[in-house]
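ENTRY TYPE: paired fold submission
RECORD: A
CONTENT: sequence, then structure tokens
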Amino acid sequence: MTESEASKHGRRGAFPMRAVSRIFANSAPSAAPGAANSGRSPVIDCGYYIGGVRQPGEIEYAQALAEARTREDAFVWLGLHEPALSDLSDIAAVFELDEFAVEDAAKGGQRAKLEQYGAMTFLVVRTARYIEHAEITETSEIVQTGDLMMFIGQHFVITVRHGEVGALGPVRAELERQPGLLALGPWSVVYGILDKVVDTYIQITGRLEDDIDAVESQVFARNVSSRIARIYQLKREVLEFKRAVVPAQRPLALLAEARLATTPKKIIRHFRDVHDHLVRTVEQVVSYDDLLNSILQARLAQVTVDQNNDLRKIAAWAAIAAVQTTIAGVYGMNFDYMPETRWRFGYGFALLLMFGALILMYRLFRRSGWL
């Protein structure tokens, strides 16, 4: 992100409290901080870290943020799952979040992006999961996707997840076993999450390759039984995965190239490693899409060839039947001066002629490949 873009976003987020108040002016106040209208709290976990070590006990996020701002080596990691716009009212006010980013986090369904609002950064990526299946059918769901949004500040990182895909509990547990990494601050959490997301992309890519190989072997098998609808369904699933993976290149490239002034220099090389893995994954996914196009075209060509073969067989048998009909029609005419009408062996000769014509034409069509 260029300095002009950063300054533009900084101006837009210069008065976050006023922006937040505009969003929630018409919203009913929540019963408690983070409480959803339905009574289900969107807060999954709130951790307070000092020097990369999580502090014991439960702590409310407003108190944790206030304490973190008094230290250079402390930050808060607040995890949310499917919060409504009203759920974010108190959180947005406490953390001074930008109104546009808050709206995106509440709605979900955003394209992968990286935006900076003053000292706060808003990052969106798409999560994915491979769904196990015995075989590919016309209605198989192979890849399931979700939304993951992150607010990153000097002393906090807020993760907002939509959908059942990409639970962050294992990521949090793994990062807490690496206090040296967490000591780098909120951006270490961003790295850990992105690393896990991209690793999942790589795993899904390998499983999709197995599915494509299976479909390809069916299409080019001697006894072809693969239906076009199955190939098309697999292509749709690959496209859904592609829409999740490909847009993530730009925000990760910005992080890997140190375009943000708020990103610690020590974490940049970690982002470069994740970006390299993502680039290779994108190349594979794009090649899978092209390969499925080729497989689909090959199957369509096979269907066309099969139809032409069927038409040739029908035309060959129609020609054989037409000769028999012609001979029978000629000998069925009641003319007095027809040859062989009073011949003793005329009936047998007509049958022999019809049978001989049938054998001759069958062998000719068989030799030419029509039968």
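RECORD: B
CONTENT: sequence, then structure tokens
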Amino acid sequence: MPSPVSTSAINRGLRALVLAAGLLVFAPVVAVVAPLSAAAASSSAKTSSSGCSGPVSPGTTTLSLPIGGRQRTVIVHVPPAAMGVALPLVLNMHGSGSDALQQEGFTGMDTAADAESFIVAYPQGAIPSGSGFDWNVPNEPLFGGAPPPAGSPNDVAFLMKLPSVLEQRYCVDPQRVYATGFSGGARMASQLGCDAPNEFAAIAPVSGLRLPTPCPGTRAVPVAAFHGTGDPVDPYDGHGQKYWTYSVPVAAARWAVHDHCRVHSVVTSAAVGVSLTSYEGCRGGAVVNLYTITGEGHEWPGGPKLRRAVTRLLGPQTTAISADQVMWRFFAAHPLPAATA
């Protein structure tokens, strides 16, 4: 593990990471949107997506959507294959102090969406934090230890509603809606696995897997998590900030208990320098996979290359595994069971 890094230094590194990620956005962004009708925004029925009735142009659009009494920003990337066929939807949530545009560049997921034919949406938090935003993770402090400000939005409610809102505009398969995110966004993805297991078929937290307490969902949710052993922000072995006490392997083991998996895990090599801890035999065909990347810092595995100034503070970046490719294969293998759709 690297030597301890001060919170202020990590903050500087996160800001640098945000800037570097922002410079890596290649897809054009068109900022436009008329609000949905109140009836469309409130719809949450698991039926065929009404967005399949009209044509949708491929590409990237920035939406401003009225959800939960606020205008919320979401960037949506539609692959070229979107021709009236119901496609999977992946929500990809940014880390603390970042935003939707920076997450789009930081993860490079548009490329995977085009190659594999899924829609990716980058929602944005609403708690101002430096040049970006934080998520309001229930019962948890923000990065740095402060509580969420009074009047902060209910981000769980926002993210639970978002898929049904997007289904009014895009041809989405409701049985194949997934959640991923980085750092603070990964903690939000973990939260959605607990609070919305019948909305999100599977989750894939990157550098931020937790099992929230309480975790009221009764459906066993498939989980694929990625974390580097050289992460100085959310240390692999735990003992970090107030929201980061126990280790990542403990988080995976707790998800395995929640999903009623076999007690014993199986550890294999997924790639050079990457070990896969897998819990199988879970209820409903779920599985819990933890990809441990030796030496990887607080980055998105296999993401676009970051500047040396960023990796000096946040740990090494490796290309040993592509989080985008691996999580997509995992998502594709785990649609929502028909009984819950």
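NOTES ON RECORD B: The first strand starts at residue 30 and ends at 31. Residues 1-5, 18-45 have pLDDT under 50 and may be disordered.
STATUS: closed
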